[in-house]
Amino acid sequence: MSLAHTTVLLWAWGSLQAFEIVEKENIFQQTPCPAFLLFDNAAYLADMSFELPCHCKPEDVSAVVWYYQKHLGSSHTKVLTDFDGRLLTEAAQVRVGSDILVRFSIRMFSLLVYHAQPEDSGLYFCGTRKGDYFYAYDVDIQSNEGMVAAFRDKGQEPLADEYYGRLHVFTTFWEWTPCDRCGVHGEQWRIGLCYLQSPGLSPRYRKTLPDVVSCGSQAVPRKLRTKTKYHTPELLVQSCLVPCENRNRIQKGVLAIYNYVSKVGSRPWVPKVPIQFHQQRLGHGLIISCPGARPEHAVAWDKDQQHLYRTQYLKGVNSSMRVFIDHGNHLHIRFTQLSDRGIYYCWRQGVQIAGFRLSVTSRGHYPASFSEPETQTAMELTLIGYLLITVVFVTVHLCRCYCYSFCSCPKCSL
After folding, report:
1. Mean per-residue pLDDT for 81-89?
2. DSSP labels for 90-122?
3. Which residues is 235 bridged to in the sheet?
4. Could you give the CA distance from residue 167 to residue 197 in angstroms, rounded to a whole number?
5. Degrees, nearest 5: CA angle 184-187-190
6. How many CB atoms lie under 10 A from the CB of residue 350?
7. Could you count the other beta carbons within 10 Å of the beta carbon of residue 225?
């Protein structure tokens, strides 16, 4: 190839790269903001994290400001920004149940909300620091309390649709998750959220289908919401079996450490995944989280060689379960026993990624904390006991006073 041809190709390649950069910079020029502010309807399950992109903005706006209102036209508006658009929050540092002001992040004009709660439902506006809005969302965070689970292997089916005249209440399911285990029988599931179809909804709320929005949308009148409160989110579970990919997950550094601490001449035990050690007090509760997992991920738990399937261990399957998996993929152990000792392995998206070696001890002095569930339960039972004793004591004395007054009257001596 001659020098001239090479020069032409390099010039063309550079032009294509420059064109791509210009396209990325001018993406907001291709998406004009609507003249009349509309709300995109979006629904999520509690404890999920979600992202709201700001799809349009004026060219002269270099940093966006996000606003939150519980209801349209509310006088109380939260400002979700540092007025520079550079507020960064790590998901691992966010605590469940904290206020939304410490559970959000703004990156490239998009709003990220971590561990969303039903209280976060409302309207989100993308605008300027002057209060000019140019894009908005209608977000519905549905609670996972009372979530209904259906196991297809047992022949169970999702909830039936509900009809109230022209109102149609139904469940919209997401895609199936990957198999949560590989090489052995696993499970996969899909999350279903509550939606409704009704004519006459507000035209200010964008809908993917005509007259269809999520049950908690601001477009739903209050009189219709009362008919949808019993249609809870659903979880559909079925078994699966997929092969494992060959992955060498043992690091040389880990192998060297185990060779060093092992006895001379003996074969060291090398774990397949990183192991975390934890010591728990006998009779106290424990919650184990899978590293990097989110509620929408396919997460599985094993205790040593025992597979903890959701068919038996999902929260709500049995009200008396001491060990269960909640809808956020956390493993709960209530009132730890000596039999709970062992290694708990965590699978994420079909790959085993971590292990937790649990040891249970009853020795040592541990100061009680009011934040512990066991301490709170003991205090509640104690207060209830004192209250019952007080009620019985007062009732007995009132009865005695009544009898004494009744027998001391003149008619009592006749």
Report:
1. 46
2. -GGGPPTT--GGGSEEEETTEEEESS--GGG-E
3. 149, 191
4. 6
5. 155
6. 20
7. 13
Residue 47's domain comprises 39-142
pTM: 0.68
Confidence of residue 247 (pLDDT cuts 50, 70, 90): low
The dihedral sign for the CA sequence 384, 286, 193, 104: positive
Cα 9 to its chain centre, rounded Å, is: 51
**Quick check: is 15 in a domain?**
no
How far apart CA 260 and CA 249 sit, in angstroms, is: 19
pLDDT digits (tens, 9 = 90+) for 194-215: 999 998 888 888 877 888 999 9
Query: Is there a contact between 41 and 203 (Cβ–Cβ < 8 Å)?
Result: no
Q: What is the pLDDT of residue 115?
A: 83
- On average, the pLDDT of the chain sits at 79
Nearest Cα to Cα of residue 67 among 14, 21, 114, 131: 131
Q: Which residue has the tokens 């060291």?
A: 268
Instruction: Tell me: do 299 and 327 sit in the same domain.
Output: yes
Using only the alpha carbons of the chain, give its radius of gyration: 30
Asked if residue 154 and residue 119 are part of one domain, the reply reads no
Annotate 301-342 with DSSP letters as a single string.
Answer: EEETTEEE-HHHHBTTS-TT-SEEE-TTS-EEESS--GGG-E
- Six-digit token string for 76: 């109380």
Identify whether 348 is part of a domain. Answer: yes
Domain end point (choices 142, 175, 210): 142
- Give yes or no: residues 44 and 123 share one domain: yes
Verify that 92 and 166 share a domain, yes or no: no
